[in-house]
C-alpha cells in the first residue's frame, strides 16, 4: 500500500506548491482513532477555513523513532516534489527504547538538514517533547534541553509541547494515559494550530 496516499489528507500533493508534512509517531498518526480525527486532519480543516493554501500530509507512524523517521523522510522526498514545510514530532519513542540523547539529537539534525537539502526556503519546525512525571527530574531537564539546543543551533522555531494537559487525563486519553482520544486529539490540534498558524500568515 502506498503510505503517502494512505496517510495524506484529501488532495493531490504532487500538484500542490505548498505541501506541509507532519513527520511524527503515534501522536501524529492518531493511534487507535479514525484518521479524520487526527490532529493533522483537523489542522487541514483549519487551514481551509483560514483561506490558506497548504495541503497537509500526515506522516505519523506509531512506534516510530527518530532514526526510522529519517529513513521515511528520504522516501517522502522522492514522492513529494513540492514540500514547503515540515513539522517534526519525534523523540519520545527513542526514550522508551533507551536510545542515548546524543543519538536522538543527531537523528533530528539529520532530519532537519535533509529537509533543507531539498529546497533552501523550506520551513522547518521542531515540536518540543517532554517526559512523563515518573522520569527523574534530571532526565526530564536533559531531554527538554536537547530540543531547545537544536532549535537554537539550527535557527528553527520550537513549537510548544502540545500534550501538556493531556497526559494522564482519563477524559482525554484512550485509557493508557498516554495517547489522546478524539477529545484529546482535538485539544492537541488546537495547541498545534495556535503555535503554528502565525507562521502561515507570514507568507
Features:
203 residues, alpha/beta, 5 strands, globular, disordered N terminus
Task: Summarize the structure in words.
The protein has about 200 residues and is α/β, with parallel strands linked by helices. The protein has a domain of about 130 residues: 3-Layer(aba) Sandwich (Rossmann fold). It has eight helices and five strands; from the N terminus they run H-E-H-H-E-H-E-H-H-E-H-E-H. The chain is globular. The protein has a five-stranded parallel β-sheet, with helices on both faces.
CATH domain class of the domain at 3-129: Alpha Beta
CATH level-four homologous superfamily name of the domain at 3-129: SGNH hydrolase
Shape: globular
Query: What fraction, in percent, of the residue positions are helical?
Result: 40-55%
Any chance you could write out the topology, listing elements then pairs?
Layout lengths: L2 H5 L11 E6 L1 H4 L9 H11 L5 E6 L5 H14 L3 E7 L2 H5 L4 H18 L4 E5 L9 H18 L3 E2 L22 H19 L3
Parallel strand pairs: 1-2, 1-3, 3-4, 4-5
Helix pairs in contact: 3-8, 4-6, 6-7
Summary, kept brief:
This protein is of the alpha/beta class and 203 residues long. The protein is built from eight helices and five strands. It has a domain at 3-129: 3-Layer(aba) Sandwich (Rossmann fold), CATH 3.40.50.
